[in-house]
Amino acid sequence: MINKRWSGITISSGVGIGRAVCVPPAWMHPTMQQMTHSIERELSKLNRALEQTKQEIAHIRATSVSVIGPHQAYIFDAHLAMIEDPAWWREWHECIQERGMTASEAVLHVGERYARMLEISYDPLVRERSADVRDVVQRLHGHVVGHRDRDVQFGVAPFVLVAHEVTPSQFVQLDHRNLRGIVTGAGGYTAHTSIMARALHVPFVMVYDEDALLGIEPGDIVGVQANIGEVIVHPSADVATQLQLLYEREQRQLKKMRTLSMARAQTEDGHTLSLYANITTPAEMDSVWQDGAEGIGLYRSECIFMASDGYPSEEQQYDIYRKTAWACRGTPLTIRTIDIGGDKHLPYVAHPVETNPAMGFRSIRMSLAEPARLVTQLRAILRASVYGDVRILLPMISHIEQLRELRALISSTQEQLHAEGIATRTDIPIGMMIEVPSAAIMAEQFAQEVQFLSIGTNDLTQFVLATDRMNERVTHLYHPYHPAVISLIRHVAHVAHARGIPVSVCGEMAADPLALPLWIGCGITQLSMSSPRIVLIKQALPSCSVQRSMALMPVIGQARTASEIMHTLGQAFVPSLVR
Ligand code: PEP
Ligand code: MG
Fold it and tell me: What is the CA radius of gyration of the chain?
């Protein structure tokens, strides 16, 4: 049938068209054998297969570094870690030695048990790791039984991969130059294959009706319009031509964007800014690099709590922070402790009704009222600190006493971990958000007690102007360019410089190109924003200069209205590029 269309969830957007390469369902069924084997032989089979699997994964890892880039290769480090996990090893041996299983049965039995354990987790991130477990187990099992036929034969002409599920190691072995799309019946937005597909801009749709896949034969022409979550099987000649043209147009656009996002963030006179990403989930890590970020300036950790149906345990949090730190590969990971309350609620907590929730029982105030919960989070962060350049950021600080109490809590948590024999970094930088007027006014005093400052312009604006950022009736008064807000930002930047500690901006204003001359003029060199905005900042920066920005500062200092400030900032740009 011509133009047969199926709908699904967009895992990675884009458009592509090619011939179907169909992957048979993952092979995972143990053949129970009778005990006609010797324990020694099965153990040596297992050990040999383990060595072969390790070498193979190391080889795939090296391929993935060259094909996809170093930031994605950590997935295969995780695969290696699984295969080297002593707990797995113990269980395999127990199955073979005490339960009379063959090496083949033991591998599948233990692997399936771990995969199922992950599958029942309430955390989608953990759940989706079951695909990694199965991937590793299938690979190992292939070596135990001597089959190497599980790897897909990949297309050489433009092709669309059609499968129940695509494992990460299958994905890296594809010929990506010819891969035009992926259609599956299972998977998830945060599964590693999905992450890699997005990193490579491969259109990927997970169809709602998996039976649709049965109607696709190898060699059928398949169009993937992932932008609208659609798969077209046997497109007519007209539709096929349209899809091909859309594909080519997208490739041209991507090329332009990629070149720009990889460029240095530099003014016309060579002054550089460090641009970091704000993230809410580790699944964003792939796009963060593609977008040209230099690390994570703000991880809104409350999103972990909001996505759960109960407080996540220390282990669950640790696993997320550790993986994110690992994915940062030595670049900063700034984890802000839970900032709940105000407009952000936890579904499993009865938040009291308050007259003024934004100024009520929220954020660090909740954390200090329930220190045990904060300690759980701190333990998880401190444990993860050995995996990268982890920094702790404290939200909503308004009083010096809060900061002191928190620092004492961090120290005692660290001591407790050390007493338990658990390693942490000892020099972990502790910073605070400047988002409450008292913190900005007393920046001098606060700066003496922290290692860095991060200006949260979203809240700072609402509190300085007494204007609820969530209330559309007062939106016209909510203005981050108001002279009072700007004057506090300049004050904080000045204090941080005088004390020699880093200061960044992580509110939405950081992503507004118009504010660039302000940051340059007051010496702020670190900005953190939602990563797709980075390219806009990189585009605007070359039309700014240090000299012009500095020259505007006295004018800005004298301004009486937000419009005057915006107008003045606009003058710092090369005229043709003023927004
Ligand atoms: C801010 O207030 O500017 C900020 C970055 O924090 P959030 O938007 O999460 O309140
Ligand atoms: Mg805030």
Answer: 27
Q: Which domains does the chain have, with CATH numbers?
A: 4-26+153-258 (3.50.30.10), 36-144 (1.10.274.10), 271-544 (3.20.20.60)
Nearby residues for ligand 2 (ion, Cβ within 5 Å): 435, 456, 459
Q: What is the pLDDT of residues 298-357, one digit of tens each?
A: 999 988 888 777 899 999 999 999 999 999 989 999 999 999 887 777 878 877 788 888
Distance 348 CA to ligand 1 centre (A): 23
192 in active site:
yes
Q: How far is the CA of 91 from the centre of ligand 1 (A)?
A: 46
Per-residue pLDDT, averaged over 95-105, amounts to: 85
- For 99, 206, 278, 350, 351, the CA distances from 354, given in Å and listed in that order, are 60, 42, 29, 12, 9
- What was the pLDDT predicted at 462? 94
182 closest CA partner among 21, 367, 379, 361: 21
Marked catalytic residue, from 71, 141, 143, 192: 192
Convert the pLDDT of each residue in 148-160 to its tens digit. Answer: 434 444 556 899 9
Three-state DSSP class for residue 454: strand
Residue 551 has which token pair? 């020259």
Dihedral sign, CA of 206, 208, 211, 217? negative
Other Cβ atoms closer than 10 A to 571: 13
> What whole-number distance in Å separates Cα of residue 118 and Cα of residue 114?
6
pLDDT tens readout for residues 176-197: 788 999 999 887 765 667 767 8
| Ligand 1 atom closest to the CA of 278, numbered from 1 | 5
Cβ atoms 303, 320 nearer than 8 A: no
